[in-house]
Specification:
6-stranded antiparallel barrel; alpha+beta; 7-stranded antiparallel beta sheet; 16 helices
Length: 734
């Protein structure tokens, strides 16, 4: 197939970031931005990306030095250097002692030249560069022309039918005449293991999802070369490499490309490679214009990005080619031999990209052939290089102290301090709490790195009744969800309560059941009375003294980005209702770490947090009561960050008596943080709230909600027709 590669950058485009390995750089001392540590870190990474490229590639180092001396580039950089935008949209001033303001902007151009992104098109008979800015890469890619033409023909875009959420899900490429390899996390969107084999999932209107691979889908090319994926041969287990094998249906009417040969040796560090795949617009990048500058507003089309291998082990490769979500499943091609050295599966933004070595793919493929494509033991993966934490060092989180028990308030800064409040009546508590808050604030100023943690005693919880199953009326008894999966039941954390083993942690107006292995809750269940709900300032985080400290996640994974926030399962405002004491206790109890799960900060916003309020608006007006169940989705392959297993998705089930019908109704919702985790390149909007069938939540979590699934207005076929919730009016309660 004829092929043209075009550099999509014009000389007027400027970017602040792309995907490269990074380390601290002394050049940052030239840049002054004292009020924005995020941007200092960003600049640091940018400058060191250039440094890393030059260090690893002598020819590029010479070319990039010439770029800095180029008058056209200097003019462009000067025009762009006055202001830059930070991730939080704050304006940065770029300053140099000599008075020149174009140093950083010039380095962004240098970076752009060092790692170009190119489009692929078949409308030219020869390999060409349009507006090429890197002569070094032009020369290398022209030498590799035939290898790239052959490889590009075998790379396709995986598209879906009957799936309302995704029109396409990633990249795949031929490794045999009719066998395509892609990532596990791509194949799992449309396929699953039924126990006896792999099948396609149910889609819109109850129809089976169908998958295809189009080996064209190129920029400015309306043609297609599509083959149906007729079977899912294998989806690797979660603890194995991130890959899956698919079989395509061959046709006498159209020829399929020759497969890409698999390199069986460990590739050398600094080997010149190129990723071929289909980058998609990435919603994780806060500066969308930045992404436009890098990728030229050409998304969902076949692209080529050259770079180098920067790390390798028997089970994992690291490379620095520029990728986005949609590149999942892309091939990593050795420019010298034209052979595949890896299967791209993830990118850690501004640091490195990950790939499964082709030798692992080849061994796995041969093993499956011998076994008739039956399941075999998964290949265990290991990390090639340790993760580097680029989190900011300081993050002040304001907290207000509240009652830890009768007559005392306790918080840790890290010293534990107790203040006597006297025996005043409940009406005096607001004044007393205000005094405690002021003391706590002063303590925080002295030790900003330490969050306030309150520790109570078991006796403080004796009056906590927890979630009330009859809250919506005796005729509508709603028990706690039942954990029916045997493995999950064995993992329930039990504690001693009056000589008996208990598994439900009861708080004011809500209850929690904990996982022993995860140190996180399976779910939190709350009753909400909208008529007596009151606003109240948040208190400090609290440990539950009824269970061991080491059974609770205190600080390991929490902090400034890229660490996580403590994401409430029962929303903090939900149990704050009833009498003054009940409201105060509900507020304090909501801050227990047992009621939190690691979440990216962006999750704590939008429709997800408005669901309870919207349900209350539709609840019986003379009652305004709802019951809400919320929890994470625990999967065997969830990533480990900072020593904690991080769930990728969350669910919510809401039940109430509907104001119009007078009948009990229940609905389910799901949200994912998968695309925000730095090691995941999957960016098709999963972080947005969507309404789903309660039966789907049951299937995914191993829980049972009893009769609630029968009251759900959605069935699995209907849920897929509605997609993500753009506004609350889309919710279907009846």
């Amino acid at each position: 197939m004829p092929l043209k590669l075009s550099n999509v950058f014009s000389q007027k485009s400027t970017n602040l970031r792309t995907l490269y390995p990074l380390s601290p750089c002394s050049v940052i001392s030239k840049i002054q931005s004292p009020h924005n540590p995020k941007c200092i870190m960003l600049k640091n990474r940018l400058l060191n990306a250039v440094s890393a490229i030059q260090h690893n590639d002598e020819r590029l180092m010479e070319e990039l030095h010439e770029v800095r001396l180029n008058q056209d580039f200097q003019k462009e950089s000067f025009e762009k250097a006055i202001h830059f935008k930070s991730p939080d949209d704050e304006t940065l001033e770029v300053l140099r002692p000599e008075g020149q303001e174009n140093d950083l902007a010039l380095e962004t151009i240098v970076l752009r030249v060092g790692r170009p992104v190119l489009t692929i098109s078949h409308d030219e008979a020869v390999l060409q560069f349009a507006d090429a800015e890197s002569q070094v890469w032009k020369e290398r890619l022209l030498i590799a022309k035939q290898q790239l033409i052959s490889a590009a023909k075998a790379v396709g875009k995986i598209e879906l039918q009957n799936d309302p959420f995704y029109e396409w899900v990633g990249t795949g490429w031929l490794i045999d005449e009719s066998i395509v390899v892609t990532n596990r996390h791509v194949a799992e969107v449309f396929g699953k293991n039924k126990g006896t084999g792999f099948v396609f999932r149910q889609g819109a209107g109850g129809k089976q999802v169908e998958a295809f691979i189009d080996f064209l889908q190129e920029a400015d090319c309306p043609d297609e070369l599509t083959f149906k994926i007729i079977s899912i041969l294998h989806i690797e287990d979660e603890i194995g490499p991130d890959m899956a094998f698919l079989r395509v249906e061959l046709s006498d009417k159209k020829a399929i490309s020759a497969p890409i040969s698999l390199f069986t040796q460990l590739p050398a560090i600094n080997l010149s490679v190129a990723v071929i795949g289909y980058p998609a617009r990435d919603s994780r990048i806060s500066d969308q214009k930045l992404m436009l500058d890098i990728f030229g507003d050409v998304y969902d089309k076949k692209r080529l990005a050259p770079g180098q291998i920067i790390g390798s082990s028997a089970n994992e490769l690291l490379h620095d080619c520029s990728t986005l979500g949609g590149n999942s499943g892309s091939v990593v091609i050795d420019l010298t031999t034209g052979m595949a050295v890896g299967l791209h599966f993830a990118g850690k933004f501004l640091e490195k990209n990950f790939a499964v070595p082709s030798a692992v793919i080849k061994d796995r493929l041969e093993l499956f052939r011998k076994n008739g494509y039956k399941n075999t033991a998964p290949v265990k993966t290991s990390t090639a290089l340790p993760e580097k934490d680029f989190s900011a060092s300081l993050s002040l989180q304001k907290s207000d102290a509240v009652l830890a028990g009768p007559g005392t308030a306790t918080f840790t800064v890290p010293l534990q301090v107790s203040i006597s409040l006297g025996a005043g009546v409940i009406g005096d508590l607001s004044v007393q709490l205000h005094q405690v808050n002021n003391y706590a604030a002063a303590a925080v100023q002295k030790s900003e790195q330490d969050e306030i943690i309150v520790e109570g005693v078991p006796e403080d919880y004796e009056n906590r009744k927890g979630y009330d199953r009859d809250f919506l009326g005796n005729e509508h008894g709603l028990p706690l969800p039942e954990i029916i999966d045997e493995h999950l039941r064995d993992d329930i954390l039990k504690y001693n309560a009056g000589g008996d083993d208990e598994m439900v942690l009861t708080y004011q107006h809500f209850s929690v059941i904990m996982s022993t292995s995860r140190r996180q809750c399976f779910f939190s269940a709350v009753n909400i009375d909208g008529k007596t709900s009151v606003p109240m300032a948040r208190g400090p985080w609290r440990l539950d003294p009824r269970i061991p400290k080491d059974a609770q996640i205190i600080k390991e994974c929490y902090g400034s980005a890229p660490k996580f926030s403590r994401g409430h399962m029962t929303r903090r405002e939900d149990p704050i209702w009833g009498s003054s004491r009940e409201a105060i206790e509900g507020n304090a109890d909501s801050m227990h770490v047992t009621n939190t799960v690691p979440q990216m900060q962006v999750m704590n916003a939008g429709i997800w947090l408005k669901l309870e309020n919207y349900a209350l608006q539709n609840a019986r007006k003379d009652d305004m009561r709802i019951s809400v169940f919320t929890g994470p989705v625990f999967k065997k392959g969830d990533p480990v960050k900072y020593g904690v297993i991080i769930p990728l998705a969350f669910w919510k089930v809401i039940a109430f008596i509907h104001d119009k019908t007078g009948e009990l109704c229940a609905t389910g919702y799901r949200i994912s943080q998968e695309e925000f985790l730095v090691d995941t390149e999957f960016v098709f909007g999963a972080h947005e709230t969507r309404q789903v069938a309660i039966s789907s939540i049951e299937e995914e979590t191993g829980l049972s909600f009893g009769t609630l699934s029968q009251l759900d207005p959605f069935d699995k076929g209907q849920e897929t027709q509605n997609g993500f919730l753009r506004n609350l009016d889309q919710i279907k309660f009846i």
